[in-house]
Design brief:
Length: 385
């Protein structure tokens, strides 16, 4: 009976010692470990050892003495007890679903924001406005900036920032700036859509009211059309060709025969669903453009390939604004109007005594405090620096 108890105590001591040794091996830099890329867990290559009187480990290269008798499954049981699924010490680190986004202000200061994948551009702007103590006048926007291509555009408020970032090249970046004219076409649509460029205005002798003008763009069942001359840069060359073009829900077309809009004379230049419209900021000399009013249609999947860009040029600023605004309306439709209404509804719900006190200042490094952050659509975002 006494010998059985002795063997039992030795087994317990061995199991405890094995666990202590493995944990010590994982923490010790002198221990030889092999890391596998798929599991990120080390496999310990240990020397043989014997048990001292107090259960301490004495590494040796010789075989175990016969006096340290133990059941054959003791080592196996010790390793099983420390499997990653059972030990909190060896539990794999839980990866976060958040993403890192860097945003630059116009003064050159940058901020790194950790946001979830479904956070919109509006929410990111709200976060930056709040943490920077800027005036929240609903004019702040994120700008997708491509310095090498010389392109930039304002993100729509509903766009997912992480998704847009995934389509950007390494040299591209987000800018944080104001754009007061972002939704101006909802307030003064007649200033954005000249009658000679809107097809149904010509058919009705310009008698359509401005409310109906916008309704035709927002209504998915209607077929609005913008038409007029544009210069198109020929692929691989610096020459430009003047063509009569038509912008519809299905895409941007140009006529191969004058101003004819017959289907057999129309050639698709670009669709709207998988493309975005950008302003060209490099000036007319770089592309030998005929005027200063350039813009570009860039496929979403293209990062830095200039051959896939559709370079266009308008006669004046009003016509360029008309083409670019119509592109946004035909692509997003009622979603733009809903984004425009959100700050208007928020203003109407606030009483004159509940408006928060804000101040204007430059972007500085601030820590994130969820308890002080106003409610957004996500509570997982934070400002790193």
């Amino acid at each position: 009976m006494e010998s059985a108890r002795t063997l039992h105590r030795q087994d317990l001591a061995y199991s405890w010692a094995m666990g202590t040794f493995i944990l010590h091996s994982l923490l010790s830099p002198s221990c030889a470990c092999t890391y596998y890329q798929d599991t990120a867990m080390p496999v310990v290559t240990r020397p043989t050892f014997s048990l001292g009187r107090l259960g301490t480990l004495s590494p040796r290269t010789s075989k175990l003495k016969a006096s340290a008798a133990r059941p054959a499954s003791a080592e196996h049981l010790a390793l099983q007890a420390l499997r990653p699924g059972r030990s909190p010490v060896l539990q794999p680190i839980q990866t976060s679903d958040n993403h890192i986004v860097k945003v630059w202000s116009e003064d050159g200061a940058g901020k790194v924001v950790e946001i979830p994948a479904d956070m919109t551009a509006r929410d990111v702007c709200q976060l930056l406005v709040y943490k920077s103590h800027c005036l929240d006048d609903n004019a702040w926007t994120l700008v997708e900036h491509h310095p090498i291509l010389g392109l930039e555009r304002c993100l729509e408020d509903h766009e997912l920032v992480v998704q847009v970032q995934a389509s950007m090249s390494s040299d591209s970046k987000f800018l944080f700036r104001k754009n007061y004219a972002k939704y101006e076409f909802f307030r003064n649509p007649l200033n954005f859509f000249p009658e000679q460029m809107v097809a149904w205005c010509q058919e009705s002798d310009g008698s359509i009211p401005q409310s109906q003008l916008l309704q035709n763009f927002l209504n998915s069942s209607s077929c609005p059309e913008i038409q007029g001359y544009l210069y198109m840069k020929e692929p691989g060359r610096k020459s430009w060709k003047k063509l009569y073009m038509f912008l519809r829900r299905s895409g941007l077309y140009y006529s191969t025969k004058g101003t004819s809009k017959e289907p057999r004379h129309l050639q698709l230049l670009s669709d709207l669903e998988d493309s975005n419209i950008f302003t060209i900021i490099t000036g007319r000399k770089l592309h030998n453009a005929p005027t200063d009013y350039q813009f570009c249609i860039k496929p979403s999947k293209v990062r830095s390939d200039c051959k896939e860009l559709k370079m266009l040029c308008a006669e004046d600023e009003q016509s360029r604004t008309c083409w670019m605004t119509a592109f946004r309306l035909l692509k997003y439709g009622i979603v733009l109007y809903q984004s425009y209404n959100i700050p208007q509804q928020r203003k109407s719900n606030l009483s004159p005594f509940s408006a928060p006190v804000v101040r204007i200042c430059s972007l500085t490094s601030l820590s994130y405090s969820p308890a002080l952050m106003p409610p957004l659509s996500h509570d997982q975002s934070r400002l790193i620096h």
